[in-house]
Specification:
By secondary structure, this protein is mainly alpha-helical. The chain has a single domain, classed as 2-Layer Sandwich (Transcription Regulator spoIIAA). It contains 8 helices and 5 strands. Helix 7 packs antiparallel against helix 8. The protein is flat.
Length: 227
């Protein structure tokens, strides 16, 4: 059975990482990955976007670290380090996703201490948010530096960056990248439309417009899936 190391650098900014209690430097992280590759251990890294202390300036440090990790994985694959380990190991560069403050976590229970401003105050509100039709409704906080709208924009920009990175390092071909960009374009439109629909007051009108939006969303993706 192949062994895979899963790491969560969370951010490329040392200052933001320390807020999370992760007291290691970017250099330490890169040296660990290089050591794993030396002994043929695949590494999968996960980045969270929108952490407390993160802003438009230091997000560039995260993207720089992302690029370095992608380059290291590309070199390892080019050298054939992962040949024959099977398809069960997730390879293809770092993975990204938004942050959620889960009820019961320290950041949810003591948000001010960890730099967050909760938008959902209890489990019921949290569940209601997770039941929304779009991922951006799951985001249940703001930070001292970023409002929710800015967090969503940063997540979308990071997703676009991730697509470019996977194509640049050969983790996916141009056709796959174009398909992901079209899905991202559709997601951006859907987020804006859902924000408008959420302002309506009549339940039947909301449900009707959400169904129409889903039909348009699926139709857009189906029309462009072979481009």
């Amino acid at each position: 059975m192949p062994v895979t190391l899963h790491i969560c650098p969370d951010t490329g900014c040392d200052a933001v990482r320390k807020i999370l209690g992760r007291h290691y430097s970017t250099e330490d992280l890169l040296n660990t990955v290089k050591l794993c590759h030396k002994y043929l251990i695949p590494v999968t890294s996960f980045f969270s976007v929108g952490l407390a202390g993160e802003n438009r300036e230091n997000i560039n440090e995260t993207w720089e670290l992302w690029d370095k990790l992608s380059a290291l994985e590309h070199i390892a694959q080019t050298k054939g380090h992962y040949w024959g380990i099977g398809t069960g190991v997730p390879l293809g560069g770092p993975i990204t996703g938004p942050v959620l403050l889960d009820p019961g976590s320290l950041a949810f229970d003591f948000p001010e201490k960890y730099g967050y401003k909760p938008l959902y105050r209890n489990l019921e509100e949290y569940i209601r948010g997770l039941s929304g039709p779009s991922w951006h409704q799951w985001i249940n906080y703001e930070t001292g530096l970023l409002k929710k709208e800015a967090l969503i924009e940063l997540i979308l920009e990071s997703t676009s960056f991730a697509i470019d990175q996977r194509e640049a390092y050969g983790f996916q071909n141009r056709s796959q990248s174009e398909a992901e960009r079209l899905r991202l374009e559709a997601d951006i439109i859907a987020v804006n439309e859902i924000e408008c629909i959420a302002k309506l007051t009549h339940k039947k009108e909301i449900e009707s417009k959400l169904r129409a939006l889903k039909t348009s969303y699926d139709s857009f993706l189906n029309r462009n899936q072979n481009i």
